Amino acid sequence: DLRGRSVLISAGGTREAIDPVRFIGNRSSGKQGYALATAAIARGADVIIVAANVNLPPPAGSTVVEVESTEELRTALVGRCASADIVIMAAAVADFRPRATALHKIKKSDESADPVIELERTPDILAELVLGRDGQSRPIIVGFAAETGDETASVREHGWAKLARKGCDLLVVNDVSDGKVFGRDENEVVILGPGQEAVEIPRTSKSHIAGARAGGC
Ligand code: CTP
């Protein structure tokens, strides 16, 4: 049922260089994004994966564009978004990056005091892709949310707020507390969609989650 459709999927986690040796990264493995690509290909779609630091074999039939940083991910997605029918932002994108990347390795001997790394916010790619639709309903844009819940709100409440803030069509909410998601083969999610729709997918393989349906998709 996705024959002739083009699906653009971001997967993995971005890395922001501190110097030629070190980076700020995150624990995303890319497994969920690759499972989504496999499911979309099985349904007949043409799939492009923009993979940030993923160490997995590419799903058969997919095109993989490799990137490292948030800026590279952004460029790869913005350039391809307009020709996609569906965009799925499964990548864990760094929220902050060093304001400047040192050209040379920061040596312990350079400073006697502890080094201070000044951070700046990265661009919000998902929000930019949604804004770029300019009132059009295509592509369908699916966001992911990594939430832990806190004293102000539950995982799901944070999810609803994020769906409203980002303006995407569906939001796949992950509870990432206690190492339950990153690098694992299984997960459980809630898919939030239009009209307060919330579809709960109980703990199962990331492949089964990739095949779940919500919001008429
Ligand atoms: N995302 C993005 N660009 C960023 C940060 C996140 O495109 N700079 C996307 C992710 O790919 C994901 C969604 O936004 O689809 C939500 O990511 P998440 O890390 O859960 O949320 P944040 O936007 O970082 O918000 P917060 O830190 O408040 O949870």
Question: In brief, what are we looking at here?
Answer:
The chain is 23% helix and 29% strand.
Report the β-strand fraction as a percent range.
Answer: 25-35%
Strand runs, count: 12
* Distinct ligands: cytidine-5'-triphosphate
Number of helices, counting only DSSP H or I runs of 4 residues or more: 5
In the predicted model, the low-confidence regions spanning at least 5 consecutive residues are none
Shape: globular
First and last CA, distance: 10 Å
Side-by-side strand order of the widest sheet: 5-4-1-6-9-10-11-12
Helix and strand content put the structural class at alpha/beta
Radius of gyration: 18 Å
What is the H/E string?
EEEHEEHEEEHEHEEEH
Description:
With 217 residues, the protein is of the alpha/beta class. 23% of the residues lie in helices and 29% in strands. The protein is built from 5 helices and 12 strands. The strands form 3 sheets. The chain has an 8-stranded mixed beta sheet with strand order 5-4-1-6-9-10-11-12, sandwiched between helices. The longest helix is centred in the N-terminal third of the chain and has 12 residues. The chain is globular and about 60 Å long. The protein starts with 5 loop residues before the first strand and ends in a 6-residue tail after the last helix. The structure holds cytidine-5'-triphosphate.
